[in-house]
Design a protein that fits this description.
The chain is α/β, with parallel strands linked by helices and about 550 residues long. Helices cover about 30% and strands about 25% of the residues. The strands form 4 sheets. Strands 8, 15, 16, 17, 18, 19, 20, 21 and 22 form a 9-stranded mixed β-sheet that branches. A 6-stranded mixed β-sheet has the order 3-2-7-23-24-25, with no helix packed on it. Strands 9-10-11-12-14-13 form a 6-stranded mixed β-sheet.
């Protein structure tokens, strides 16, 4: 009798339930910004096999699919997985193992941190990064004198926040063989009274780098995994790492295939002769999580260290023009070589001289070609005639970092003058000319948090809400433009718009869940937006406590 009753119930239930399609994940009760061509919204989506299966309304999707897992967004906002179009993920990880000098407000504080670090670690070589003399009361470059007195026998190398200047002590200079007679193209050994001050600008820094203790594979793995953790916590699902050597690229590939590294990486290859020769011979390389198809070229230095190459002297340092790290001739030769391949060329360009050199080289090398998407990384100070090079045929794309504008605004005009500022940090004009603009942070130069990028792009203010009316607001982006720059346009700049960058059927199930509706919330609340969860390939890789 019991068996007959059980069979009757089972038949009844089965007959009443429609056939449901299998699916892995349902996201429900959300405000979903798909960033598709119509910028449409929804409140639920379904994932299967790491891809978006359907987008729509919760009741319909629940009736249609047999769901394995459900994530209740509880009214929170879902956006496509955030992409940082220009960062240094591996550098961030390595920096966690060195002296962190970010945010120091004086040279005394720098020295205090170095001393405390060495008392704890007792390393044979002290390496640090993050100081910025522009944030100190005394804005002159520091010298090695006090480092020498504190560390007479231990080499010390402290990199400026932008990575384009290095403060070293006498022991480090000795190991690197640097004297007052040392001359290196594309940079400067700063002298005072005929002797090195301890400040090196751009290319001479490489002489010191070569004397660093070797980084073991174990240290590199730890650095990558530590940095990945931070990136996922901030809602990043893809990071464009702007300058990696072959060994680190291959290590990332191995970690991804082992399932230890979930983050997707668009790897710009550092353009050392060894890297160029290897990759031009072997070609591009792509998996679902790793894209190796571009070269990163350093054209000049940074504005903060006066290494950016300017057409006329700096306004606050007469007769000083900065320097080209890669000469114009070398730039033209490399551009011509890469134009004959599938590789993308992504060139760091800060000063107006560097930018116009890059734009001319690109334009000449790509003549007759379309849709090459060569990137100008930073595109920071564009001369008036430079904007027209950003054509609508997508041969040249600007890749910018909005928080650079809000970090530099305190001193940038003093450095380059009011006239050149008209073409500086000009994101809206760049977008109007190019039709797309890729947004990133340049971390660890700036902070990792992509919500700061969004806020700086839209409000043109720093985290102190300064200036009250925004900085050069003619070049602010709308919220829609800013979100596109951090998703679909960043994906486009990577040749990945068909697989990511928007929440659309068939694309990777990469999305970020935020506790605020960044398209509607008061502007001042934007930088306070928190990440509730991060999904890569439909897998929840981070969830806030």
């Amino acid at each position: 009798m019991k068996k007959i009753l059980f069979l009757f119930i089972a038949i009844t239930l089965f007959s009443c339930a429609p056939d449901k399609l299998p699916a892995d994940l349902l996201i429900k009760n959300a405000t979903i910004y798909t960033v598709d061509k119509d910028f449409s919204t929804a409140n639920a989506l379904v994932v299967k096999d790491g891809k978006i299966l359907e987008i729509g309304l919760k009741p319909e999707l629940e009736l249609k699919y047999q769901i394995k897992k459900t994530y209740d967004a509880k009214g929170n906002t879902v956006v496509p997985g955030l992409i940082d179009a220009h960062a240094h993920l591996y550098g961030l990880g390595l920096g966690l193992q060195n002296v962190d000098l970010v945010g120091t407000t004086s040279f005394d504080e720098v020295l205090g941190k170095v001393v405390a670090f060495q008392e704890e670690k007792n390393l044979p070589y002290i390496i640090g990064r993050g100081w910025d003399q522009n944030k100190w009361e005394n804005k002159n470059f520091p010298t090695k004198t006090r480092l020498d007195s504190l560390f007479p026998d231990t080499p010390v190398a402290l990199r400026r926040i932008d990575g384009h200047a290095l403060l070293v002590n006498s022991k480090a200079l000795e190991l690197a063989g640097i004297t007052a007679k040392t001359k290196v193209d594309g940079g400067e050994v700063v002298l005072e009274n005929g002797e090195p001050t301890g400040i090196l600008i751009d290319n001479p820094m490489e002489l010191v780098n070569k004397t660093f203790p070797p980084t073991t594979k174990e240290v590199s793995i730890e650095a990558l995994l530590d940095a990945q953790k931070i990136a996922l916590e901030y809602g990043l699902t893809t990071v464009d790492d702007a300058g990696l050597d072959r060994n680190i690229i291959e290590l990332i590939d191995t970690l991804q295939k082992e399932g230890k590294f979930k983050l997707r990486i668009y790897a710009m290859i550092s353009n050392s002769p060894e890297n160029v020769d290897y990759y031009l011979e072997n070609g591009t390389y792509k998996t679902d999580r790793l894209n190796v198809g571009s070269f990163k070229v350093y054209t000049d230095g940074a504005l903060g260290s006066r290494g950016a190459a300017m057409r006329k002297p700096y306004s606050d340092a007469h007769n000083h023009f900065g320097a080209m790290i890669t000469t114009e001739d070398s730039l033209n030769i490399l551009a011509k070589k890469l134009a004959a391949t599938e590789f993308q060329m992504n060139s760091h360009a800060i000063g107006d001289s560097a930018n116009i050199a890059v734009l001319r080289a690109y334009s000449k090398a790509l003549e007759g070609q379309t849709d090459r998407r060569w990137r100008v990384e930073h595109a920071q100070i564009i001369p008036p005639e430079g904007f027209d090079y950003f054509s609508k045929n997508h041969n040249i794309i600007p890749s910018v970092q909005p928080t650079h504008a809000t970090s530099d605004m305190y001193w940038a005009e003093d450095r380059i003058g009011a006239e050149r500022m008209k073409g500086a940090y000009a994101y809206k004009e760049l977008l109007d000319k190019s039709g797309v603009i890729a947004l990133g942070t340049d971390f660890p130069v700036e902070q990792v948090n992509p919500m700061y990028t969004f806020y700086a792009a839209v409000a043109r203010k720093d985290l102190k809400n300064y200036p009250e009316d925004g900085f050069q607001m003619k070049d602010a982006l709308t919220r829609e433009e800013a979100l596109c720059g951090m998703t679909i346009w960043a994906a486009f700049a990577n040749f990945e718009e068909n697989e990511k960058g928007s929440i659309e059927v068939g694309k990777f199930a990469d999305f970020t869940i935020l506790d605020k509706d960044i398209m509607e919330v008061d502007e001042d609340e934007l930088p306070n937006t928190k990440v509730m969860a991060t999904f890569v390939n439909g897998e929840k890789v981070y969830e806030a406590e």
